[in-house]
Amino acid sequence: MTIRSMIGGVTALASIAGAAIAFLWQALMWLQASAWPKLSVMTALKWLNVPWVKLARHWPEAYTLLDAIPLALALVGLAVLGWVLAKWGSD
Known about the structure:
- By secondary structure, this protein is mainly α.
- The chain has one domain (3-89).
- It has helices at residues 3-33, 41-47, 60-68, 71-89.
- The longest helix is centred in the N-terminal third of the chain and has 31 residues, at 3-33.
């Protein structure tokens, strides 16, 4: 097992777990309030307090794009990339 396949596998597993947690949290909030909460990539970046998020006035298109992408879907995409990296890195 190479280090590349280990990194890809851990990335895939962590991303799938994160996507499941994000989706289950949204489902729980929907059951409580009867309204599906918006949880986007930009919401997560703001919550993590990423410094370049504050520069939204310089790149409004990027802000709009990241605000439109659901977090669970982005994490599933990251999991697929991790799985591809794990398969590509294995012998």
